[in-house]
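> call design_seq(struct)
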């Protein structure tokens, strides 16, 4: 089992800085800290992540290494996922899905899926922990607006022992400051941060 860090990891997944999912990340971090836990925000756009080559090297029976591991920062980000007591994703919806950079990182986790399939001890030993998500979308309607992102995130995180709670989906937020100027939506995000902070303390107490 990877050494557990103290900080709740908040992954901000927008390709634009200073927008609604960055605002959500700041509110979530504040909520986590209000609950007495620690928080760290990571903006994915500041990390270089190459696309999976589908070479299947990670499917080999002996090991689940990625041939790109030393070439970018995907593994550094996976290290945070493996070690955090709780993780939170804040993301815009792009075409009913996660933004392409985030999805590129998700695809790179295939080696963890393969390791789990093979029952590799290091991956089976990852502690069960909670995960949360806050999605922001420009459109006010669309029954399935968050389904694509939710499902991708759920099946990505499960390989790290992380169980995704029902995401908070915020609609009708399009301009960069729309969340910041919406007190009701901001309060919901802050509350989610507090819940994540409380859970982090529980996970750490049981670690
Ligand atoms: C490439 C792209 C695709 C988008 N696709 C959708 C969409 O399918 N549905 C929707 O409601 N909003 C869509 N939007 C709007 C964003 O979800 C919205 O502007 C969101 O607030 C952006 O979050 P940010 O401020 O964190 O960047 C899209 C925006 C971009 C740039």
């Amino acid at each position: 089992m990877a050494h557990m860090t103290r900080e709740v990891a908040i992954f901000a997944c927008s390709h634009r800085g200073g927008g609604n999912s960055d605002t959500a990340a700041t509110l979530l971090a504040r909520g986590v800290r209000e609950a007495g836990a620690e928080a760290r925000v990571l903006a994915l756009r500041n990390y270089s992540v190459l696309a999976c080559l589908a070479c299947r090297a990670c499917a080999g029976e002996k090991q689940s290494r990625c041939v790109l591991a030393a070439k970018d920062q995907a593994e550094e980000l996976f290290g945070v996922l493996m070690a955090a007591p709780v993780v939170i994703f804040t993301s815009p919806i792009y075409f009913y899905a996660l933004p392409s950079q985030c999805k590129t990182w998700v695809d790179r986790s295939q080696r963890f899926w393969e390791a789990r399939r093979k029952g590799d001890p290091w991956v089976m030993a990852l502690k069960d922990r909670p995960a949360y998500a806050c999605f922001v979308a420009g459109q006010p309607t669309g029954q399935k607006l968050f389904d694509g992102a939710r499902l991708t995130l759920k099946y990505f995180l499960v390989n790290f022992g992380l169980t995704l709670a029902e995401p908070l989906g915020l609609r009708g937020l399009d301009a960069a400051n729309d969340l910041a100027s919406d007190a009701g939506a901001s309060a919901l995000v802050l509350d989610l941060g507090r819940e994540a902070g409380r859970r982090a303390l529980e996970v750490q107490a049981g670690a």
